[in-house]
Amino acid sequence: MSNTQTIGPAAVHRLLHRDTVCSVFSGTVAAAPTDLLCVTVAHERVDGSRREVFLEWAAKLTGLAAHPHLSPCTAVGLTENGRPYLAVGTARRTLADLLGEQGPMPPGQVRALGVALSDAVAVYHRAGLIHGAIQPSHILVGTGHHLQLTAYDVTAPVLAAPPPPSPYTAPEHLDAAVAGEVAASPAGDVYALATVLYAALGGRLPWVRHAREDAADPLLRAAPVPHVPGVDPELTDFIGAALSPDPRRRPTAAALRQQLTRLPLAGPPSYGRRPDTVAAGLLPRRGLRPVTVAVSTELAPYRPGRERVGLRPRLRSIATATAGVALTGALLGGAALATYAATNPESTGSVCTDPAALAGWIGEQLDEGTIVDSWCAGDGDYVVATVDYQGGSGGDGDGGHERLAWRIEGENLVAVGDCDDPSLPASVLEFIGCI
């Protein structure tokens, strides 16, 4: 008998991500077994008004006109036991990977990218949908560098989760992001798209610095967007207008497409040498929400397992539901995940005392890099490691070391790095450079 599980028409193969709201799997459908799918399924059943809200959103998504730069939605609906799910096409590489490997794009390619994506976003908006998390890691790179916007679950009311503030968060949504609430708007999508284009040019934004809190500083967001050396100023002027701190002064996605289409790029470039790398702060290695998966998950509610089977972490799209409205109340509630350590208190200690097992556990969290050294910290509640990146990451190309830390949650490792987290012990704060 086959052990293959199905969610709607999709056969799911491997758990990529799990949080308190949903699980994300890789999958395929019988009609196209070689096409990769990303399948998101909620943990909890929905009924009543939550069911109707989700189905209304699903109807809008399935009613979208086909667009070459929107990832196809293969299926969306409710499982037999009433759990919302969404299956969309995916790819192994993203624009973040491309920019990190190859550096900034030529201005003509960035203009073409802007025309394609703004047209796709305009189609999305005309259907009454809001994306809410446009960024390079949510833009797929297919055959021939064909680009498609994906991560539609970020606007599904019962699949959403609050995102932390990032350079792609529009200024009007910063307060909600800092407060752990969910907000999105069409103007916010335009802002995020303009940030993607500016990053692709190699631009350096005033609010993307070394300090993590700069991305949420409203005063920095009011600073003018500088021209990019070696790029026609008219192109950066159009992008800068879409990055206006006042959402009322930004063009719509459709208007931005028209502006970029008519732009000849015939003027002299701005003075100076063009950057040869994309700003590292615009290409975070772990994206907005790093996650850890330790067990293969059934479609039933979470139950702690007895054996840890490591899988590499993947990113799940995060957050938002309707225009300009915080939707925390619309999110699927639910208890925190049960922890393996609660029923197996000796399991963590055995890993901490076995260097090979600890290194293997940490290695599952890394997409790249070599572990130089690692150990348990904070009385065994945390794991820390020094990782060597040969040739660099995030587009800087310089290589070097990075100090990383994870909180042990049962049999999972959850990445930490917020210096303002009061729960972090002093030893971990000192190790990751907070103090």
TrEMBL record:
Which terms are listed as keywords in the entry?
A: ATP-binding, Kinase, Nucleotide-binding, Serine/threonine-protein kinase, Transferase
Q: Where is the Protein kinase domain?
A: 1-263
Record bears the keyword Metal-binding: no
- Keyword presence, Nucleotide-binding: yes
**EC annotation from Swiss-Prot or TrEMBL:** 2.7.11.1
User: Which Pfam families does the record match to this protein?
Assistant: Pkinase (PF00069)
Family annotation (Gene3D superfamilies)? Transferase(Phosphotransferase) domain 1
GO molecular-function annotation terms?
ATP binding; protein serine/threonine kinase activity
- SMART domains annotated for this entry? S_TKc
InterPro entries per the UniProt record, alphabetical: Kinase-like_dom_sf, Prot_kinase_dom
PANTHER family to which the protein is assigned, alphabetical: MITOGEN-ACTIVATED PROTEIN KINASE KINASE KINASE 20-RELATED, SERINE_THREONINE-PROTEIN KINASE NEKL-3
Q: What is this protein called?
A: non-specific serine/threonine protein kinase
Q: Which organism is it from?
A: Glycomyces paridis
